[in-house]
Design a protein that fits this description.
Shape: globular
Number of helices: 21
Oligomer: single chain
Distance between the termini: 39 Å
Length: 477
């Protein structure tokens, strides 16, 4: 049986790009990585559905609610770049599996916590898992996805809303079981079951990214991974026949400086803007939909939760449509359109929420979620993942993800404080400035990785931006 000879990263990327789809072991790895993102969403939203009962159960103040709900995002700010650095240095799989262990520990701490302080400990571990996992999972997805299918990375957004909706359905089930104000403990504990399942599955079936291995010069390891993943025989070329690795980034955390230079700078600004903007608008509004539903539809827990579930069904629709939307318009333009539409929805909520008829009270938040999930909600992480070569990808995702986590933490922190001090209407109007500003940035910066993707040549001849002449040549590519 003849074998495919791997000389370097160019051969790996070219083979993957030539694949007709994402199937077999590669498909299993792809969906297991998405399963980790399901867990991230499930863990992050576990408090959301039961936040009202939890506030009564632990007698929390508005400040304590703000600290508790935002803590995981503050922790993720630190662990995003740490996870990205680990993945770029040692590989994608070990830190990805470790993140599931942290999520399991976080769920256990929070579910059985007798006090507010121990719930915070649990949320610390959840934030660490989220920070490590998201940057790496998106990088792994990109490295297993043929170039013409890159918009499929946006599928993670539909998975996110499936997880949030599952939490809401579980909350209704636990409520009908008569668990009372302890309902939040069951929601948080169920995240531990998901974490344990994924920990075992990823440990058994995940295979290291051959793109990462080849770019690091580990051609034998890349060939072995390709054989496991694609069921064909791959072998490494003799050392003297291997492709040279030009300008390999070998300076650890110092590699991150590259994403703020040369051709990568506008890509970083665009991805960071979308990440921060979508995080603030989602975690300040979308995450609090169960609480907003109580204001819009009354204090009945089941009715308000069903209202939030309807909103999130629009998120599922938008999330799974986002690959098609991104393919048609490009990720950048889809983000600009989505931000503009979200701005209009927040403006309408801010001005008229008290007088909205019941139909519009359902429709406007639903459209907010639809435009968010179909556009910037998905595209920030996808643009970040697709804009950098493999040895920088997870690290760049970590840094840009940390900026996004900052936006999430700010959104989670400011919403309850603004709502308490100013009321819901002014809070919506203040938050509307975020998608407006992000829409402007997305309209000005023209980079779109689905229109001019990172090529095998860029992977192979990775620039270090040593001179203005070299940079001018790169800008023409």
């Amino acid at each position: 049986m003849s074998s495919f000879v791997i000389r370097g990263v160019h051969d790996v990327v070219s083979y993957i790009d030539a694949r007709p789809g994402i199937s077999g072991r590669a498909g299993l790895i792809w969906w297991l990585a998405l399963g980790g993102l399901f867990l991230d969403a499930f863990s992050n939203s576990a408090l959301s559905a039961g936040l009202g009962p939890m506030t009564k159960d632990l007698q929390l103040s508005a400040t304590q609610v703000a600290v508790l709900t935002s803590l995981a995002s503050w922790v993720a700010i630190v662990f995003n770049p740490i996870g990205g650095w680990m993945a770029d240095k040692w590989g994608r799989i070990p830190p990805l599996v470790f993140a599931k262990f942290l999520a399991l520990a976080g769920a256990a701490f929070a579910a059985f916590a007798p006090s507010f302080e121990l719930v915070l400990v649990g949320r610390f571990f959840v934030g660490a898992a989220y920070g490590i996992d998201f940057a790496i999972a998106m990088a792994l997805l990109a490295e297993f996805t043929p170039a013409r299918f890159k918009s499929r990375l946006n599928t993670w957004q539909g998975i996110w809303y499936c997880a949030v909706s599952a939490n809401l359905l579980l909350a209704i089930m636990f409520y009908n079981m008569g668990v009372g104000e302890s309902i939040w403990r069951y929601a948080v504990g169920s995240a531990g079951v998901v974490a344990l399942t994924l920990f075992i599955a990823q440990l058994l079936y995940m295979v290291e990214s051959p793109t990462w291995a080849a770019r690091k010069g580990l051609v034998d390891r890349a060939a072995a991974s390709m054989s496991k993943i694609y069921g064909e025989k791959f072998s490494a070329a003799p050392v003297e026949d291997r492709s040279p690795i030009v300008n390999q980034a070998t300076k650890g955390f110092a590699n991150i400086a590259l994403i703020f230079r040369g051709i990568y700078l506008p890509r970083t600004i665009l991805a960071a803007t979308i990440q921060i903007g979508q995080s603030i608008q989602y975690f300040a509004v979308g995450w609090y939909l169960p609480i907003i539903s109580l204001t819009l539809f009354g204090q009945d827990f089941v009715v308000a939760t069903l209202g939030a579930l309807v909103f999130n069904l629009f998120g599922i629709l938008g999330g799974f449509l986002s690959p098609a939307i991104g393919k048609k318009f490009g990720l950048r333009k889809a983000s600009a359109i989505g931000f503009g539409a979200v701005f209009v929805m927040l403006l309408l909520l801010g001005l008229f929420y008290q007088s909205l008829p019941i139909v519009l009270a359902f429709l406007i938040p639903s459209l907010f979620i639809l435009f968010h999930s179909g556009g910037p909600g998905a595209n920030g992480k996808s643009i970040s993942t697709l804009s950098f070569r493999s040895e920088l990808r997870a690290g760049a995702n970590g840094v840009i993800g940390a900026l996004g986590s900052t936006g999430a933490a700010l959104g989670l922190l400011v919403f309850p404080l603004l709502k308490q001090n100013l009321g819901l209407g002014p809070t919506f109007l203040i938050l509307a400035t975020v998608p407006l500003a992000a829409c402007v940035v997305c309209s000005v910066i023209k980079w779109d990785p689905t229109r001019a993707p990172v090529s095998p040549d860029e992977e192979l001849n990775a620039p270090q931006f040593k001179s203005d002449i070299q940079q001018a040549e790169l800008n023409r590519v």
